[in-house]
TrEMBL record:
Single GO MF descriptor: oxidoreductase activity
InterPro entries in alphabetical order: Glu_synth_asu_C_sf, Glu_synth_lsu_3
Lineage of source species: Bacteria, Bacillati, Cyanobacteriota, Cyanophyceae, Chroococcidiopsidales
SUPFAM superfamilies reported for this sequence: Alpha subunit of glutamate synthase, C-terminal domain (SSF69336)
Name the record gives this protein: Protein glxC
UniProt-listed Gene3D superfamilies: Glutamate synthase, alpha subunit, C-terminal domain
Amino acid sequence: MDGVTMEKVTFDLAQTPLRAVNHYLHHNLTQTGGQAIEILNPDGAHNIAVGLNAPVEVKILGHAGYYAASMNQLANVTIAGNVGTGVAENMMSGRVYVKGFASVSAGASAHGGLLIIDGDASLRCGISLKGADIVVGGSVGSFAAFMAQAGRIVVCGNAGEALGDSLYEAVIYVRGSIKSLGADAQLEPMSEADYATVAELLAKAGFSHNPQDFKRVASAKQLYHWNEERE
């Protein structure tokens, strides 16, 4: 959106119902962009800025509840606080930036776009990921990337138990320690392409870690086919 003069619209959820705000976001945005939306006093409300489908800037100035910026397309959503369950769930494109911590299932089933979390992410970060990129500045809880099918996850801190359980084609990069790997997940050597990928994603997220410090976790591909044991 460089070079575009932003038309700034401000909503205060202490005065305006969330339903009215989301109605505006769904029906009154220009598809060509050029708008900046600021949402004040979110106070942990659920379903803020869901289902956006326009290249607009949205800033949520405070903590958000469940499913903030879920089903996002094209929009650039920044949340200046912590978020509840399912931030950027089923995101298709655009960017969602959490300047705090994320609860369970961050980026669940996201098909595209970029999710950035400055702090830690709780359980099941990137569950059933389908192609998006996730960069976590802190650590992730257990079962991160469970059944992740495509996409990339960069974890700048540590990973909990069962990382990458039942992983498909998604790849995970972890800078810190890994408590345990899930079924069919394995550590693999980092290639030059992997280092380049990590460097690219760190740059997009604004983190300055050394890509050489990261480990690669991918699928061993032993669960791709059902094997029935017979006596």
